[in-house]
Amino acid sequence: xxxxxxRRITAAAIGVACSVAAASPAxxxxxxxxxxxxxxxxxxxxxxxxxxxxxxLAKDSGLDVVDRAVAVDVPVTGDxxxxxAKLKAAGMDVVATGDDPRPTVEGYLPFDAISDVAKLGVxxxxxxxxxxxxxxxxxxxxxxxxxxxxxxxxHNIPDAIAAAGTSGAGVDVGVISDSINRVGAGVAGxxxxxxxxxxxxxxxxxxxxxxxxxxxxAEIIFDEAPGLNKLMFASGTNSGPVDKADSINQLxxxxxxxxADDIFYLSxxxxxxxxxAQAVDAARAQNVAYFASAGNRARQSYESQYRDNGGGLHDFxxxxxxxxxxxxxxxxxxxGFILVALGWDEPVGNVTTDLDIRIVKPDGxxxxxxxxxxxxxxxxxxxxxxxxxxxxxxxxxxxxxxxFSGVTSPQMKWIEFDNFGPTPVPEFxxxxxxxxxxxxxxxxxxxxxxxxxxxxxxxxxESFSSRGPKTRFFDANGNRLATPLVLAKPNLAAADxxxxxxxxxxxxxxxxxxxxxxxGIATILRSQNPNASVKEIYDTMTDSANAIDCxxxxxxxxxxxxxxxxxxxxxxxxxxxTGAEVSAATDPSKPNGKGGWFTKKSxxxxxxxxxxxxxxxxxxxxxxxxxxxxxTKNLTCNAVSGGGPGSGSITVKIxxxxxxxxxxxxxxxxxxxxxxxxxxxxxxxxxxxxAKCKISGYSTKPGKxxxxxxxxxxxxxxxxxxxxxxxx
Length: 728
Fold this sequence. Notes:
This protein is of the alpha+beta class.
């Protein structure tokens, strides 16, 4: 990760320069004071009276602080619009609002307004935005001039373009990252060197000081799909997850066909779709192919049900022993930063358990900030602890979890984040997933792992690439699922350690670089078949036949690389380029009457909907049915396969009713027999129409005779006969 993005990734650690003596569990948090104080996230409380030194420390340790204002989320308990008005009046700079999983106002809150906002009565919580960041790794050196990503060759992009006959024409691509036009010559510089398209639209740029990681991502996509129609950018780090969701919505509303996203928020729920994941799913429903970075945290995670040691602390030891601390392997170097985000399986807005997390020395001495939110009050099942080592030497760090209040023993999970290597491993290693909890955990996204373009076999994931799978216990509304939903994440792998012209991103490493590598391939596929569904794009890109399997796991797909390292030429060959084929069949198989008419009272109708290249995803009017009643019936079956739409139509004509019994006009059977041409046959048929009405038995010979009239309709049905007896 580039140092310029560090403040967006770590949590607040107010007072991290000092260690404090080991404290008893009950003393870890002071719950005395006004009730409104409990509404504040523990990282906010020291800022109410912050001096210049505290502000500098807050910036260094990760809070998003701008001009003595801090980025916060304020979940609203009443009318959202009314709350926005009150928050603005109290001094909050409102950036975005959202509705799910609960109505929330997001923006920057001046330090001197923190207490006032907590007293407003519009919310039960004021929560700092935690853990927003990008999934890049440290990039060494810079480059100037036109540069082609090394992933182009490794993904077989030239062969793919040749086979597809297109390099992205007609496709609009969106990018979400920190910024795109804040560093060096910016967008204009990349356009001038031929590394970005002329049609680059900035919907929402990042803040001053951001790194232009979004520009590096955009260059990778443009290297792979230089014929794309338009490239759009919307920052995901301007305030927090609500504003990121707004960026997703804006890109989708402006016609993005593909989105590449490398921003994550560890403050999003671990076991439930938050506002970002729900925005991703909404974009997917609008036919957007969404690619999200898996994360750069390997398996730096721990997961277990809470086990009390008898004294209010979690027992990490799953066996007969007791151990209330889980220490990381190795040490934290001087200047190193470590953050641990804890979540548990209770729904947002309905929390009944209050857990606290802290980072401690092996002897129990507390290091840095203690996660001490009143979770029952805030309704947020999340706690954060962080520490920056300023001791002058390396130290070992451990984790403790306190059960502060509540009676449940929930399933817990923490994810560790740091700015040093090698990756620290927890003492009690549960090999748990570290997939980013927001966009990457959405069902509507393809989550991308990283494989270095320099890897000889392209079959070994980067050691830091986040592993899966991801588990959800609740639906988006906070209802517990009957069975936990286990999502196969990541879904695929793509190249990192690739080149761009952006200073600080040459080479560009991490799942932040792998994500646009995958999105560029999707751009080619969407251009190859504009009618292909997102499901077909996803199915093609996660088909193991179109990828190189990672050898780190025997599973296919596996929790390290998903389907494997995607090869663009194979994906192009595997994409369905034809739509659904629709045909109809009747029972009887063909009309049994004349003129294409069925003369049965009912006719069976069935549809055949097929596509040899992909599955049928939806259909309308294609159910088998029995047609009854006379008349002409026009029926259509519309279907969509992965390759595109198709339709079929049929006209079924049914006439099961014979013509009316005819009448004989011009002679009633008495009196002289008139000339034959004076005698007429009259009848009606309301469905197929009358074909003919004929009279037989006309005779001028002496004796008794019978005139017989019969009508025949166009379906070939005959009426009952009309008979008149007469004598000559």
